[in-house]
Amino acid sequence: MADAGANAENGALARGALSRADLIRDKAYIDGKWLEADGGASIDVDDPFTGEIIGRAPSVSEDQAKAAISSAEKAFPGWAKELTRHRGAILRRWFELVMDHQEDLARLITLENGKPLKEARAEVAYGAGFIEFYADEAGRIFGETIPSPVEGRRLLLEPEPIGVCAAITPWNFPLAMLTRKAAPALAAGCTMVAKPASQTPLSAYALAVLAEEAGLPPGVLNVVTGKAGMIGGLLTASSAVRKISFTGSTEIGAKLMEASAPSIKRLSLELGGNAPLLIFDDADLETAVETALVAKFRNSGQSCIAANRIYAQKGIYEKFLAAFAARVDGLVLGDGFDEKSDIGPLIDEPGVAKVREHLDEAVEGGAKVLAGAGASDGRLMPPTLLRDVAPDALLTREETFGPLAGVIPFETAEDGVRLANDTPFGLAAYLCSEDPATIARVGRAIESGMVGINTGLISTAVVPFGGVKMSGLGREGSSHGLMEYLNLKYLCHAGL
């Protein structure tokens, strides 16, 4: 268990107290055992709101990281042969335990990530939804019988688990990004080594506590933290690891892809977003404002599918700006544990600096501030709205990953689509319109893996999540996400 005494002394644990303090761990989870890092090496985990250290995660050695891979390799044959209904039953129990402790898990997310507690609660429910969905999907891994073109043969397809998988998860959704990867892998019969982000490792370890209680056998799920380069290098180099699932930057995704090439691993890469939002003249104004508010400011803007570029057609531009500015002005900035807070602190100082850089560059380029733009306080960055942003402003070319919205006017639907597609990325996109023809044409024309129409909330366990172009490979969620962890074996039985 984490050093509860130290946490109580600095006041952080009292502020974000859990009813089950043993969910907070400072040890790695390898082969069903909780182990200290060799030499006691650790990583400080701080509270983004106060800056205080609220826990420590182990910084595992190279030998320990190798042991986690070996543990998953050893556990794989038995887990792969387990009846699918038994795997599903364990996942079902894991889901139930997550829901039983959802308030503690939400408080832990807010403590290490900073997001408002109401959003942390939503993340727990969202993340648990993947465990629940794949608990059921485990029993629906079906093969196929293919009609033979010649007599006396039987042609079969049988799905088989890939083998040992690795999950490398980000800090912005520390619980949900792990369940979205681990649940389908475990349902398929794969074993896993998970490496959560060093800024937010406590949620992953808490999930491992509950997975162990649910009856997950030793070695099936291992969780390690430490030097990203070392752990990532071992995972990509290991011939035992057959698949890597990564959520993070395109730059790191490309490096993982290159490093995985010699062993021909399967990859799921959810990378950069830079999502556009197109608001057409015929859009319902209230719907458009609500869509923009959620798509841009959820999770304080720290989301890969955040509406990074907002385009409003000229006929609705002024009305939209006035209504949107009023809502942005009403957002409450503060401590995630304050139930009134809508926007919490950013994850670290570099995150604040990047938002400030995008803001200053846009204003220097002629943009005008309609709401916010006050000085940052620690990692708190005021939600800010800009109008008349230059089409080539820095915030249109890089993911801001913060509570800064810039709105750009456009003339025609063709102009809007051109602006939306003027990026090497294609994860998510949004559009607001009441015209079915516009929705159909633009929805098809936008180069993106996902399109939200009159809504900024598009993620759920039952749909495939993923992008095109430089936003990555593969899909997570839905039955398609389960197939990412299965190989198809073809059996040709002759002489019948």
From TrEMBL:
InterPro entries: Ald_DH/histidinol_DH, Ald_DH_C, Ald_DH_CS_CYS, Ald_DH_CS_GLU, Ald_DH_N, Aldehyde_DH_dom, Aldehyde_DH_Superfamily. Keywords: Oxidoreductase. GO terms for molecular function: succinate-semialdehyde dehydrogenase (NAD+) activity. Residues 34-490 form the Aldehyde dehydrogenase domain. Its EC number is 1.2.1.16. The active site is at E270. PROSITE patterns: ALDEHYDE_DEHYDR_CYS (PS00070), ALDEHYDE_DEHYDR_GLU (PS00687). Pfam families: Aldedh. Belongs to the aldehyde dehydrogenase family. This is Succinate-semialdehyde dehydrogenase (NADP(+)). It comes from Hyphococcus luteus. The gene is gabD.
